[in-house]
Structure prediction request, 62 residues.
Amino acid sequence: MDLSNTIWRKSSKSNGNQGACVEVADNLPGTILVRDTKDRDGGTLAFTPEAWQAFVDLAKQH
Prediction:
């Protein structure tokens, strides 16, 4: 997968906890990427748009 055009954004819920948040890239076709802001090289999770939406919907309930 070519990640050269990946655009990362921080969570809108990020509150300045010394980077204790996640970044999301949702500009790639068919894939949502998520990584830890504190450890950007530590690994990236990949989700289908449907799986990511299900996660977001569930997180909004809590």
About this structure: Residues 7 and 25 are 6 Å apart (CA to CA).
